[in-house]
Design a protein that fits this description.
Helices cover 36% and strands 18% of the residues. It is an alpha/beta fold. The structure holds nicotinamide-adenine-dinucleotide and zinc ion.
């Protein structure tokens, strides 16, 4: 049995399929991952920029980086991997997507049950008061200020060292525990606590299917390893499943 057939069979036999995704699923949409070479921004460390420390040091620089990413994400479209997951949910096979991505592409592809562990780049919040807002485009001036109290606004995403939104995390853990098959797509498995999702599912007896061109710490748990880019693999998978 080839790997495509093996994954198709696993999905057909599943009773509670859940997907866990990372930056790699959006790469074929033109959104760079953190652990890769990004031209202009290659000399900056995302772990510095996406942190409270980095923001305190230089909010303008951090916002310039987010503005660049918002521009890229705004132009990007869901690729066959996002669309395939949306189709799997629509036909009732996929029960939830747990994502580390902040790009919102799963919802744009049509998925309804999306648990965004790290927030969403299209939301901002005030660093001082309770002001929160949704945005459609990057701020014109950076760093943007809170219209309510005048303090700085920040992206409503989870930075390195920050806790995850509690409700979303609780729900994600429950979904992972309920899964009998977990598709782990495009994540290096290096960012904790999100990286615990596959481990928890595996410990509860869920079969892990990893879709990632490279080996990761999750690979050793995986029953099936697909060493291809997610978009091109899903194109074939959806054809094979005839859904
Ligand atoms: P990561 O950058 O650490 O790892 C990306 C993984 O994707 C790697 O293992 C790589 O081998 C794999 N990959 C590369 N191309 C792929 C493809 N075409 N198909 C499948 N897999 C592919 O990403 P991470 O594990 O998500 O952790 C990084 C953190 O950065 C996350 O917390 C996330 O919030 C954030 N982030 C988000 C985005 C986004 O929203 N699109 C982009 C960059 C980073
Ligand atoms: Zn405020």
């Amino acid at each position: 049995m080839d790997v495509l057939e093996a994954v198709a069979e696993k999905i057909k036999e599943s009773r509670y399929l859940v997907a866990f995704t990372g930056a790699g699923i959006s790469k074929e949409s033109g959104i760079p991952t953190f652990r890769g070479k990004d031209g202009l921004w290659a000399k900056y460390d995302p772990e510095e920029l996406a942190s409270w420390r980095g923001f305190l040091k230089n909010p303008k620089l951090v916002w310039e980086w987010y503005t660049w990413r918002m521009d890229l994400i705004g132009k990007a479209k869901p690729n066959p991997a996002h669309l395939g997951l949306a189709k799997l949910e629509k036909v009732g096979i996929l029960k939830a997507v747990i994502t580390q991505n902040v790009d919102g592409l799963h919802r744009r592809a049509g998925n309804k049950k999306v648990l965004e562990l790290h927030g969403n780049i299209w939301r901002v919040k005030c660093v001082s008061c309770d002001f929160k807002d949704k945005v459609k485009e990057p701020p014109k001036e950076v760093p943007p200020k809170c219209p309510k109290c005048g303090s700085l606004l920040r992206p409503d995403v989870v930075w390195f060292g920050e806790p995850l939104p509690r409700d979303v995390w609780t729900e994600a853990v429950m979904e992972a525990m309920k899964s009998d098959v977990l598709l782990v797509i495009g994540t290096s498995g290096l960012v904790a606590p999100a990286s615990m999702v596959p481990t928890m599912a595996h410990q509860r007896g869920s079969s892990i299917v990893e879709i990632n061109p490279e080996d990761t710490p999750i690979s050793s748990m995986a029953e099936i390893k697909v060493r291809s880019p997610a978009g091109s693999f899903f194109k074939e998978l959806i054809e094979r499943l005839r859904i």
